[in-house]
Amino acid sequence: MSSRWMMMGALLSMLAVILGAFGAHYLKPQISQAMLLVYKTGIQYQMYHSIALILVGILVQQNNQVLMLRHLKVAALLFLLGIGVFSGSLYVLSITGIKSIGAFTPIGGLAFIVGWIYFLLAVKEIKQN
Asked: Residue 45 in contact with residue 112, Cβ under 8 Å?
């Protein structure tokens, strides 16, 4: 399971770099400055949480406490959900201008927040044992 999270984190990090280059070289002259900032926010949060997935994988590899592993799995799934919904909705909003898609963004943000709560619970388990 640990290598799966690290691989997913690495792939999503690579995708963030590709999307960033796409934004800088292709989208920049195509969309407004405001929408470019929206797009960049999606990239930033994707990169942060892709690195978090790598960190989850490292922690899973180094520990075998059942409750901690459950917390890390939930955190990883929520980080993935957050990337898809938060970053994905910002990409679609910035490229298409469909404002209603922005209604999904807070759901992804909430997934990130709850993911970090589960990550914190996992770290607390490490400290207790």
From this structure: yes
Q: Spell out the residues 6+ positions from residue 89 whose beta carbon is closer than 8 angstroms to its own.
A: 42, 101, 102, 104, 105, 108
Q: Note the residue count of the chain.
A: 129
Domain boundaries, the chain: 2-128
How many angstroms separate the CA atoms of 5 and 113, rounded? 18
Neighbours of 2 (CB within 10 A): 16
Is the pTM higher than 0.85? yes
Type of residue at 115:
G
If you average pLDDT over every residue of the chain, what do you get? 95
The dihedral through the CA atoms of 51, 57, 60, 66 has a sign that is positive
| CA gap 35, 41 in Å, rounded | 10
Q: Where are the beta strands (DSSP E) in 3-126?
A: none
